[in-house]
Amino acid sequence: MIAILDFKAGNLTSVKRALDHLGFPCLITNSHEEVRKADKVIFPGVGAAGKSMESLRELGLHELLRERFDAGIPILGICVGLQVLFDFSQENQTPCLGILPGEVKRFPEHIRSAGGDLLKIPHMGWNAVKFEKHHPVFREIPAGSEFYFVHSYYPQPAKEQLTAGTTEYGMIFTSAVAFRNLAAVQFHPEKSGKPGLRLLDNFCRWNGS
Amino acid sequence: MLSKRIIPCLDVRDGKTTKGIKFKDNIDLGDPVEMARFYYEQGADEIVFYDITASSDRRPIMLDVVRKVAETIFIPFSVGGGIRTLEDMRDVLLAGAEKVSVNSAAVLNPDIIRQGAEAFGSQCVVLGMDIKKVPVSDKIPSGYEMVINGGRTRMGIDALWWAQEAERLGAGEICLNSIDADGTQTGYELELTRLISTNVRIPVIASGGAGVPQHLLDVLNEGCADAALIASMVHYGTYTIEAIKDFLSENGVKVRRFW
Question: What is the pLDDT of residues A90-149, one digit of tens each?
């Protein structure tokens, strides 16, 4: 059973529908007991870092996530679920979980494309991810595959080795990270067509090593 | 680099798709869930459903369509048409849509944008704008006026002012529909699209007037649109999404090529 962590952060049903489609049993829950029983945890998120951390703390999920991470359970963070894994987010000046060293920053206000056009914020739509290391969760995704993004903040890991994939939007930023039994992506694999489903399928088959 | 999005638009009435030509003479095209699947597999980047069901007591039919679509395709899709309240927005999002689009209701009650953005996040809230070209005046300095009721009622509101106001209220995206160009297949309103897109910071989807791939090229380049809505040119099988993307790509537009 895969637990999809429910911390009142937007549309969790789209992740569940994708897993249903792929045929992996899953459950949207914030029950500590259910999460402890699960053999994998998906940590999605839409919305602001401040409110997400507040909900996680209210529900005691911040400690539970750390506990599951230490127990070696495979964890997948999505979007804000990736961002709050770091030490700190500039969004609402929020101290976060600190499972990964680094911080989350806002795209510069005057970010421009290579051609000199002022880019829009949020970064919204389809963009390519260059996966930079072999990892079971990112395997067999054709080069040049694009994923669906919606975000105004991006992660900046303190250690380069954490970066598993990068994306270009007026700058090169980390769009996928991997560390031990944890993988996390800035984009929405549940909304990214076949490459996204491939990634979710990979995660659901991963033992965390 | 971000890809420009190609978005087929399906008009749905009483659970069936139609294509309106200038909002009149709709003809039946079939099942929206199957059409969504077809376009998903053809490489659509997103899909827009526009509910033109006349009576509100038939709304549950649309919600049922939304639920089935959400189980079938794994790309973002939005639903508009008849969205008047926060409750309407919630229903559509819970049924599985990624975004909800408000149009007339927002012109009449702008606060719905703020409420929607606060409750669900800006990324869920698309502002649909129906716009008519008019002579420049003190009241309409841009020469583009907001209209509702399929273009029948002029609102005396300047389109550029309204786009910026909606952005301030928390709209996450704007879908521009030129009433003059809609259904003509003679090309998008480039001047209008460029005016709005270069004066807001949120993404702008151009809509109304697409007939040939060159029209998309024009609106994505000259019009500075972030995405282009298409209907008849794919619904009637004249072009495939893949063929349109091939054309755009050959002409230097970045589009998503692998799906």
Answer: 999 999 999 999 999 999 999 998 888 889 988 999 999 999 889 999 999 999 899 999
Closest residue in chain A to residue B204, using alpha carbons only = A120
**Sign of dihedral through CA atoms A116, A126, A204, A134?**
negative
pTM of the model: 0.94
Amino acid letter, B249: S
- Cα-to-chain-centroid distance, residue A173: 14
Q: Do A20 and B71 touch (CB under 8 A)?
A: yes
Residues on chain A touching B1 (C-beta within 8 angstroms): 113-114, 127-128, 168-169
Residues of A in contact with B173 (CB under 8 A): 124
pLDDT along chain B (259 residues), means of 10: 96 81 49 92 96 78 95 96 92 93 95 92 94 96 94 95 97 95 91 97 96 98 97 88 97 93
What ipTM does the predicted assembly reach? 0.93
Scored b (16 or more CB within 10 A) or e, B154-193 reads ebebbbbbbbebbbebbbbbbbbbbbbbbbebebbbbebb
Q: Are A104 and A153 in contact (CB under 8 A)?
A: yes
Task: Please give the DSSP secondary-structure letter assigned to residue A112.
Answer: B
- Note whether B226 contacts A: Cβ–Cβ < 8 A: yes
